Amino acid sequence: MPALRTGEVLRHAAAVPQATDGAAEAEELVQETREVVARNADLIRSSADRDRFLRDVSLDRGILGGGQAGRQAGVPTG
């Protein structure tokens, strides 16, 4: 069984308050998830590998969503 990643766990945790009218709590979890992905990306030394991590890992791409947090993390937007 594949290991769960922190970002994956937080992303799923955010779905519960979103579904139960807890938008503020959900947004906090989403932001924390984006920060985890950005921190993980910062640990990758090779810029080519970091770009692949941010661009090609569908979970991370979905978490970052190309929004402000994604741009701050260096997600390619094109």
Question: Your description of this structure?
Answer:
The chain starts with 5 loop residues before the first helix and ends in a 6-residue tail after the last helix. The chain has helices at 6-19, 23-42, 47-56, 58-64, 68-72. With 78 residues, the protein is mainly alpha-helical. It has one domain (6-67).
List keywords for this structure.
single chain; 78 residues; elongated
In which range does the helix fraction lie?
Answer: over 70%
User: Measured on Cα atoms, how large is the radius of gyration?
Assistant: 13 Å
Largest sheet: none
Secondary-structure class = mainly alpha
Number of helices: 5
Runs in which pLDDT lies below 50 for 5 or more consecutive residues are: 66-78
Termini gap: 33 Å
Number of strands: 0
Write down the overall mean pLDDT: 75
H/E topology pattern = HHHHH
Percentage of β-strand residues? under 5%
Bulk shape: elongated
The total domain count is 1
What would a concise description of this structure say?
The chain has five helices and no strands. By secondary structure, it is an all-alpha fold.
Task: Give the secondary structure arrangement, pairings included.
Layout: H1 6-19, H2 23-42, H3 47-56, H4 58-64, H5 68-72
Helix pairs in contact: 1-2, 3-4
